[in-house]
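Me: Here is a favour to ask of a fellow structure person. Could you put it straight underneath, so I can go through it closely?

Assistant:
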Amino acid sequence: MSFKPVFERFMAATRTGDKATLAELVHPEFELIEPTGVPYEGTFRGLDGWRKLARAVIEAWDEFKVEPISFPGESADSLVVNLRLSGRSRKTGRHFSMSVLELWTFRDGKVISIAPHYFDTHLLAKIDTP
């Protein structure tokens, strides 16, 4: 099974606020850990955790965009996605653009974890510090 279509549905549902599709795609044991240094650091669990993270991202960044660059790997239960993140800090007005690799893991056709690997968390902290 290719997980790229699941990724694409998940991202589209997040962009449009499609709660029914997100509920269908997020595994009950979902977990995402954002690293120290980003404005929304912490552990986010379940569908409510995903929604909380999405709100925190929108509260931190204006003009926020997530654009897939490539899909460098896939296995029986995971997908690696290279993304371009961009936006403007709501605190400082400064713009940023950077790459992040994410390891998406699936169980029963649903997203059970997303592990982001930022290339430069210091850049995000610097952009968001007045």
